[in-house]
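Support reply, case 0932

Customer input (verbatim):
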Amino acid sequence: MKKVKTVYDHIRQNNIKTVILVAMFPIIFIALVFLFVWMVSPIDNAINTTAAVAIPTFIVCFVWLLVSWAFGDSMMLHMARAHQIYDSDPGYREVFRSVENVAIAAGLPTPRVYIINDDAMNAFATGRGPRDASVALTRGIINRLTRPELEGVIAHEMAHIGNRDIRLDMLLITGVGVTVFIADAILRGALYAPRDDNNEKSNGAAVLLMVWLAFMVFNWIITPILRMAISRNREFAADATGAQITRNPRALASALRKISTDSHVKCISDVKSMSAACIESPAGPREFASSLFATHPKTSVRIERLESMG
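Our regenerated output:
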């Protein structure tokens, strides 16, 4: 008899997959730089060049991450044109109570609650950690979902907070931004490298061009594939954890079914960094050229998993 997977099985499997995917970022980056430099330089020089590139890159990523850490959440809320609500607001008192109840069930501090003035159905969480988190809900998702469905959505966002997915996504966004900037600087260095006596570019320029090429492959092929894989994996994990919090996976499944029909939020639909943070893509339903570059798993698969949970 086939064993029925429980919520805990789904959470554990998704967490293991995420650790493996995150570990692949530095491994693939170092391997690419080494292999591309090795094509035009001896192995000893390839090893030294790889170390000389990788160490400063990781240091700059760390510094830029601190900057993003300080201002990232406020930037996301500003882009969504969200405004904060309180338990004293008559029109949103029940919404605030739902967030408060789910936070208690999740064993987390009650996050700040924001409303996005859009009739589409979507939601996202942001913040530096559980004690400084915010949950943003569209007006449409509040008005068009039943209370159990809305609590399922809130639990999904609380799961992102509890699982530290916001921190992980901020790390990935920062890494991409830094490597793109460094690649541009390396290309400029290669183009303006000193010439030898025969007015030809030195071998150093060839090495720099190969390092730049490694960065470009990493930035525009490897990183999108890995980042989207992590994003999809964390959505599955948040679904499972949200179901664990509410003890009602079918309510979240029902909410996802409704949300998938109208998730387009105009003010953030074109902001790529926001797409992965939302419960459904704010760009609305679309056919992807490849599922490798999709920020979210197929809704039908998410619903199937939720409805099968024991």
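We compared this against your earlier run and they match. Two observations from our side: The CA atoms of residues 172 and 227 lie 7 Å apart. The mean pLDDT is 84. Please reopen the case if you see a mismatch on your end.
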